[in-house]
Design brief:
By secondary structure, the protein is mainly beta. The protein has one domain. It contains one helix and six strands. It has a six-stranded parallel β-sheet with strand order 1-2-3-4-5-6.
């Protein structure tokens, strides 16, 4: 159970931190869990919270209800409402909305996407507003999947002989 407490760390190597309010600056951490987490210049393996704000940080797995990335890198970003500004996220999944501003995204899935000058490999969304450049749209993804599936089947037939 998360205790109603506030923890602050600066310039430390941490293993696991759990609290209601967490503020970490210029540190590395393995896992963070809490209600409201603010990270500045932090490298983290796993972050899980209700509200997450990361500025100039890097993380492998970021999971929360309200997620804000600013000038950061996150390998996998999952949340209800996600905001990505001047950042890189190879995989971003959101239940509700994603706001992306001048960032690079690999795979983006959300109900609503609002974008400004963003590049993405593949976007799956119900509604998209703004300027987003995608490498593959849904038609191209289906065609690419059909071609790769056909090649896989053909090569498996040749392998049996």
């Amino acid at each position: 159970m998360i205790q109603k407490e506030e923890k602050e760390f600066e310039k430390k190597d941490l293993d696991f931190v759990e609290a209601e309010f967490i503020n970490i600056k210029q540190s590395t951490i393995r896992a963070v869990e809490g209600g409201h987490i603010e990270l500045q210049q932090v490298g983290a393996l796993s972050i899980d919270a209700e509200k997450i704000e990361v500025t100039q940080g890097a993380s492998v797995l970021l999971r929360g209800n309200d997620v804000r990335l600013n000038q950061s890198l996150s390998a996998v970003t999952v949340g209800d409402d996600v905001s990505i500004d001047f950042s890189l996220s190879p995989v971003s999944v959101s239940r509700e909305s994603t706001k992306v501003n001048r960032s690079a995204i690999g795979f983006l899935a959300a109900k609503d996407v609002t974008s400004e000058n963003t590049s993405a490999f593949l976007v799956v969304a119900n509604k998209i507003e703004g300027n987003i450049t995608t490498l593959i749209d849904w038609r191209s993804a289906i065609a690419l999947g059909g071609i790769l599936g056909g090649l896989w089947g053909f090569l498996s037939l040749l392998k049996r002989r």
